[in-house]
Amino acid sequence: MVLLESQIKLKTGDIAPDFELKGIDDKMHSLNDYENYKGILIIFMCNHCPYVKAKVDALNELFKKCGKDIAIIGINSNDSTDYPEDSFEAMKETAKEKEFEFDYLVDETQEIAKKYGAMCTPDPFLFNAQKQLVFHGKIDNAVKPDDEVTEKTMIINMEKLIAGEKIEKNFDPSIGCSIKWKGN
């Protein structure tokens, strides 16, 4: 397990790169499918990473609190050749078992992760209704899987976005396992 911190590739105000990815519902999804929201949260994640596993409840809470106003999309870019627990079928099983209500998409070519500059799992990107990046960073302040959460960073920022308030800190790096790139 290689522990990484998210890095800045997309800058505040940059437009979200479009995508056409297959979801666990077996349908194709693109960024334009999420136009009727006040924002879009894209989280690069996977099934096997202990840092993602530790955030399952937080991911479901994000959806319950803000999912009506902000589209939440999980994208798995891991190479499932060496990590079969991140396969498309395993994504379906994980989503059912963990009761994910948000769209969970597979980035088999890893091109979308590269376009966003995603480095780790989880690596969340929050965009406004105009698809401009307003926050890139952690879900909460529990850095290690066993840490206790005392600040729900992403919920605070999503609520500010919904209310039309300014998000003060636009980058607060997430920490997690490295994305499992093909050929590495």
Structural commentary:
The chain is α/β, with parallel strands linked by helices and 184 residues long. The chain has helices at residues 50-53, 56-66, 88-97, 111-116, 153-163, and strands at 3-5, 20-23, 28-30, 39-44, 70-76, 103-106, 120-121, 123-128, 133-137, 171-172, 175-178. The longest helix has 11 residues, at 56-66.
Please give the structural blueprint.
Layout (H helix, E strand, L loop, with lengths): L2 E3 L14 E4 L4 E3 L8 E6 L5 H4 L2 H11 L3 E7 L11 H10 L5 E4 L4 H6 L3 E2 L1 E6 L4 E5 L15 H11 L7 E2 L2 E4 L6
Parallel strand pairs: 4-5, 5-6, 9-10
Antiparallel strand pairs: 1-11, 2-3, 2-6, 4-8, 7-11, 8-9
Give the CATH level 1 class: Alpha Beta
Output the radius of gyration: 15 Å
- The proportion of residues in beta strands is 25-35%
What class, by secondary structure content? alpha/beta
Mean pLDDT reading: 96
| Main sheet overview | 8 strands, mixed
CATH architecture: 3-Layer(aba) Sandwich
How many discrete structural domains?
1
- CA-CA gap between termini: 13 Å
CATH superfamily, called what?
Glutaredoxin
List the strand order in the largest sheet.
Answer: 3-2-6-5-4-8-9-10
The outline comes out as globular
Low-confidence stretches: none
State the CATH topology: Glutaredoxin
Number of strands: 11
Order of helices and strands: EEEEHHEHEHEEEHEE
How many DSSP H or I helices? 5
Summarize it.
With 184 residues, this protein is of the alpha/beta class. It is built from five helices and eleven strands. The radius of gyration is 15 Å and the shape is globular.
